[in-house]
Amino acid sequence: MKNERALIVIDVQNDYDGGNLPIAHPPIAGSLANIGRAMDAAKKRGVPVVAVQNINAPDAPIFAEGTPGAELHPVVASRGWDHYFRKNMPSTFSAPGFEAWLRENGITTITIVGYMSHNCDLSTAIEAVHRGFKVEFLSDATGSLPYANRAGRASGEEIHRVVSVVLQSRFAAVMTTEEWIEVLETGREPERDSIYASSRRGRGIE
Description:
Helix content is about 35%, strand content about 20%. It has helices spanning about 30-45, 75, 100-105, 115-130, 155-170, 175-185, 195-200; strands at about 5-10, 50-55, 85, 110-115, 135-145, 145-150, 150-155, 175. Strands 3-2-1-4-5-8 form a six-stranded parallel sheet, sandwiched between helices. Strands 6-7 form a two-stranded antiparallel ribbon.
């Protein structure tokens, strides 16, 4: 029986691991290990693994074409993948042929791991929902970094936590890698939520 789920490994590239855009939270050693665990579990259970790589112009400060920072991290490169897509915009749906591949292969649910929680992961998840796909987000196999700009300042932990809460409220089933592996093994449907219920809990009503 064809698997209706695909593991989307987004932009797991060297610039995030001690390069020009270092992931801060969760600590990258842990998220990389969980990305590897998710890939291994997917391959064991026949879930196709899709590697996505962001490549920018040769003079870009991050992911510059032809530089070590743009290369896929060894955690991904050493394991290989079933399909590969290249992009230079946040959402994976900007990669030529990505949506067509999902539909041609009967994929109805995408599981997101990789970087960054608040950028490429978030935009991919939102666009997936708009296009009719279900989304799963493995919060310990993703990560964020701190920002400071004219709008304010936020730590990597704050960004990652808030994005996870927002995703669970409407766009994705947020879970750990261990919980996802259990979903694969049992076939149970992961817990999803709603804006209404999340808001009520946030206000202390439930």
